[in-house]
UniProtKB/TrEMBL annotation, chain A:
Residues 37-270 form the ABC transmembrane type-2 domain. The chain crosses the membrane at residues 39-58, 64-83, 120-144, 150-173, 185-210, 246-268. The keyword Kinase does not apply. One of its GO terms (molecular function) is ABC-type transporter activity. PROSITE patterns: ABC_TM2 (PS51012). The keyword Transport applies. Belongs to the ABC-2 integral membrane protein family. It is found in: Cell membrane; Membrane. One of its GO terms (cellular component) is ATP-binding cassette (ABC) transporter complex. This is Transport permease protein. It is a multi-pass membrane protein. It comes from the Bacteria. Keywords: Cell membrane, Membrane, Transmembrane, Transmembrane helix, Transport.
From TrEMBL, chain B:
Residues 25-266 form the ABC transporter domain. Belongs to the ABC transporter superfamily. This is ABC transporter ATP-binding protein. InterPro entries: AAA+_ATPase (IPR003593), ABC_transporter-like_ATP-bd (IPR003439), ABC_transporter-like_CS (IPR017871), ABC_transporter_ATP-binding (IPR050763), P-loop_NTPase (IPR027417). One of its GO terms (molecular function) is ATP hydrolysis activity. PANTHER family: ABC TRANSPORTER ATP-BINDING PROTEIN, ABC TRANSPORTER ATP-BINDING PROTEIN NATA. It comes from Thermosporothrix sp. COM3. Keywords: ATP-binding, Nucleotide-binding, Transport.
C-alpha cells in the first residue's frame, strides 16, 4: 500500500529549477484567483485611479504643461502597478514565514534564488493582467494614445518593470522581521516614491534636494522607461522623458541584480541565522 | 554522574555494533546559540542514528528538540558542529541533504487555501518528480493515478479537491506525512507529529507510520512529548537545557538509570525493618518497604527474609518514570 506514496525509483524531471519556479508561480496565481477580494480590488482600483486622476490632472494642469496629461498619468499608473504588484506579492513571503508555509518551500532541494524568482514570476503574471486592463481601459475610455511599435516594445518593458518590482520587494522582505514590521516599512518606502518618481506629476523641474531624492527612487527609472517607449516619435518626447530608455534599462538591470542577490541572500540568511 | 554512565554504555554498544559509516544521521559537537541569547539552545550534542531505525528525541519544552531538528533539516544554521545526513555534509551539501530527507514540522506547513491535491502537486513538482501543470487534468497520467491511490489510502478520495482548511487535524497530519514521503526520502523527520491530536487520531497515525517503516525501512527521526511513543523507538536521546542527558535504547536507559523495586509489607514492621538492616539492604519505608534491586536479586532477597510477609509486589519503572527522574535530577 505504501508503494502508492513511495515509488521504487523517483526520477526527476528535466529542468528541475524551471519546474520549481513554475510551481511556485502557479501557486501564487491560484491564490490570486481564489481570493475574490484581492481579485476584485486589483481589477477595480486601477480603473478608479485612472478614471479619477486623468480627468482631474488634464482639466487643471494640462494647459500649463503643454502636453496631454491623460496619457502621461495613465503610463505613470501603469508603471506603478507593474512595479508595486510584484513588490507587494513578494512581501507575502513574510506572512508565509509566520504561517510556516515558507518552510515547505525552503526545505525543497532547489536554489533559493529559484524560489524567490518563482514568486516574482507568479506576481508578475498578476501584474501583467492588470497592465492589460489599464491599457484597454485607457484606450477605450480615456483617450490613451498608443502606437503599435510602442505597444510591442511595452511588452518586454512591462516584464522588466515587474521583475524589478519583485526584486525590490525581495529586498524589503529581507529587511522586515515580521508582517507587522513590513506593513510599517513598506508605506514609508513606497509613498515617497510615488511622489518623487513622477507617477502622477511631472518631475522635470525639482528643487536640488528633491532631485537627489528622486534619483534615488527605483520607481523613477521604470516610470521614465515606460514613458520613453510610449512617447517614441511624439513631439512632446523631450518635454516628458527624462532619460534615454536604454540608460533607464541599464540602471534597472544593475539595480535588479543588486536587489535580487542582496535581498535573497539576506532573506535566506535571516531565515536560517536566527 | 547519570549522564556519564549512560553515555559510556551507549557509546560502547554503538562502537561494537555500528560503525559511523552505517549511521544515516551523524551529529558531532553541535551548538546553536540564538541571536541576543546568552545561553546555548543546543549545547555540544553528539549522536548517531542507525539507518532504518526509529529514533526519538525526548525532552521538556525548551530542551532544544525543535532547534536541533531545524538544524538537521537545513532550516536553521548551526553556530558550530558537524552534521552529516545520508552521507552529505549539512554545511556544504545542504541541497543534497534536502533531497534525502522528508519533514513534518511541528506546525502544519500546508497551504490551507489550496486543495489536498494542489498541496501534494506543489510538493511533487517542487521536488521535480513530475512536470508542473496548472491543473490536475493537465498533469501526467502517472501522477493522477498515484494521487488517486494516495487519496484512497488516506481515505480522502471524496475530499481530494476540497481546501485543506476543511480537513481535521489528524487528516492534515496524515496528508503532510504522505506528502513528505513522495520524493522517497532516506530519513523522515517528524517534529511532534501527534501534538494536538486526539487519542484515536494518534493511534491511526502511528499505525500508518508503522506501515511506512515496515514497507520501506525508512529511518524515522521523531521528537515527541509522549513517552509511550518513544517507548517503541530503537534508540532515543533525552535532551534537557540543550544537553543530551541520556541516550541509548529505551531498555538500556531504563536498565542503566533505574532499578526495579521490591515492595514489601509485614504485620510485624519492626522485625522486617531490623531484618532488612541486618541484610544490609537499603530501603525506603513508607506504607510499604521499598527496596531497589536488580531483577536477579529479588529471589535471593525474598528467600533471605524470615519475617512473615503480608504483601509482596514488584515495580518495574516505565520510560516515563525514567524520564521524569532524569529531568528532575537535572533541574
Amino acid at each position: 500500500m505504501i508503494q502508492t506514496i513511495i515509488r521504487p525509483e523517483v526520477k526527476q524531471v528535466r529542468f528541475v529549477t524551471w519546474n520549481a519556479m513554475m510551481t511556485i508561480a502557479g501557486r501564487d496565481i491560484l491564490r490570486f484567483l481564489r481570493d475574490p477580494m484581492r481579485l476584485i480590488f486589483s481589477l477595480i482600483l486601477p480603473l478608479i485611479l485612472v478614471g479619477g486622476l486623468t480627468g482631474t490632472l488634464q482639466s487643471n494642469l494640462g494647459r500649463a504643461v503643454n502636453y496631454d496629461l491623460t496619457t502621461f498619468s495613465i503610463i505613470g499608473m501603469l508603471a506603478m502597478n507593474l512595479f508595486q504588484t510584484p513588490m507587494m506579492g513578494i512581501t507575502s513571503l513574510i506572512e508565509e514565514r509566520e504561517t510556516d508555509f515558507s518552510q515547505e518551500l525552503f526545505i525543497a532541494p532547489v536554489s533559493r534564488y529559484a524560489i524567490i524568482f518563482g514568486k516574482i514570476l507568479g506576481e508578475t503574471t498578476v501584474a501583467l493582467v492588470q497592465c492589460i486592463e489599464i491599457i484597454l481601459s485607457g484606450l477605450l475610455l480615456f483617450g490613451l494614445h498608443l502606437s503599435l511599435t510602442a505597444a510591442l516594445l511595452l511588452i518586454p518593458a512591462a516584464l522588466a518593470t515587474c521583475l524589478f518590482g519583485g526584486a525590490f520587494g525581495t529586498l524589503l522582505a529581507s529587511l522586515s522581521s515580521s508582517a507587522r514590521a513590513a506593513s510599517q516599512l513598506i508605506p514609508f518606502l513606497i509613498m515617497p516614491q510615488f511622489l518623487l518618481s513622477g507617477v502622477f506629476t511631472p518631475i522635470r523641474v525639482l528643487p536640488w534636494y528633491l532631485d537627489i531624492l528622486s534619483k534615488l527612487t527605483p520607481l523613477r527609472y521604470v516610470v521614465d522607461l515606460l514613458r520613453g517607449i510610449i512617447y517614441i516619435g511624439d513631439p512632446a518626447y523631450n518635454q516628458i522623458v527624462l532619460m534615454n530608455p536604454i540608460f533607464n534599462l541599464l540602471i534597472i538591470g544593475v539595480l535588479f541584480v543588486i536587489f535580487m542577490v542582496a535581498g535573497t541572500y539576506l532573506f535566506v540568511r535571516n531565515e536560517r541565522n536566527r | 554522574m547519570v549522564r556519564q554512565s549512560v553515555l559510556s554504555t551507549y557509546d560502547g554498544v554503538r562502537s561494537q555494533q555500528k560503525t559511523p559509516s552505517e549511521a544515516i544521521v551523524f551529529v558531532q559537537d553541535l551548538v546553536k546559540r540564538y541571536k541576543k541569547s546568552s545561553k546555548n539552545a543546543v549545547d555540544h550534542i553528539s549522536f548517531e542514528v542507525a539507518s532504518g531505525s526509529l529514533f526519538a528525541f525526548l525532552g521538556p519544552n525548551g530542551a532544544g528538540k525543535t532547534t536541533s531538528i531545524s538544524i538537521l533539516t537545513t532550516t536553521l544554521a548551526p553556530t558550530s558542529g558537524t552534521v552529516r545526513i545520508a552521507g552529505y555534509d549539512l554545511a556544504t551539501q545542504a541541497n543534497e541533504v534536502r533531497k534525502h530527507i522528508g519533514i513534518v514540522f511541528q506546525k502544519p506547513t500546508l497551504d490551507l487555501h489550496l486543495t489536498a491535491e494542489e498541496n501534494v502537486r506543489l510538493h511533487a513538482t517542487l521536488y521535480g518528480i513530475y512536470p508542473y501543470r496548472m491543473t490536475y487534468r493537465m498533469m501526467p497520467k502517472a501522477y493522477r493515478d498515484q494521487i488517486q491511490e494516495l487519496a484512497e489510502m488516506l481515505g480522502i478520495a471524496d475530499s481530494l479537491f476540497k481546501p485543506v482548511k476543511t480537513f481535521s487535524g489528524g487528516m492534515k497530519r496524515k496528508l503532510e506525512i504522505a506528502r513528505s514521503l513522495l520524493h522517497n526520502p532516506d530519513v523522515l523527520f517528524l517534529d511532534e507529529p501527534t501534538a494536538g491530536l486526539d487519542p484515536e487520531s494518534r493511534r491511526r497515525l502511528w499505525d500508518y507510520l508503522r506501515e511506512v517503516r515496515a514497507q520501506k525501512g525508512i529511518t524515522i527521526f521523531l521528537t515527541t512529548h509522549y513517552l509511550e511513543e518513544a517507548e517503541g523507538a530503537d534508540a532515543l536521546c533525552i535532551l534537557n537545557h540543550g544537553h543530551i542527558v541520556a541516550k541509548g535504547s529505551p531498555q538500556q536507559i531504563k536498565d542503566e538509570l533505574t532499578q526495579s523495586k521490591l515492595l514489601l509489607h509485614a504485620d510485624d514492621r519492626e522485625s522486617l525493618r531490623a531484618e532488612l538492616q541486618a541484610l544490609g539492604l537499603p530501603f525506603v519505608e513508607e506504607e510499604l518497604f521499598s527496596i531497589s534491586l536488580a531483577n536477579q536479586q529479588m529471589h535471593k532477597v525474598l528467600k533471605a527474609i524470615e519475617t512473615p510477609l503480608t504483601t509482596v509486589k514488584t515495580f518495574t519503572p516505565s520510560l516515563e518514570d525514567v524520564y521524569l527522574q532524569i529531568i528532575r535530577q537535572e533541574d
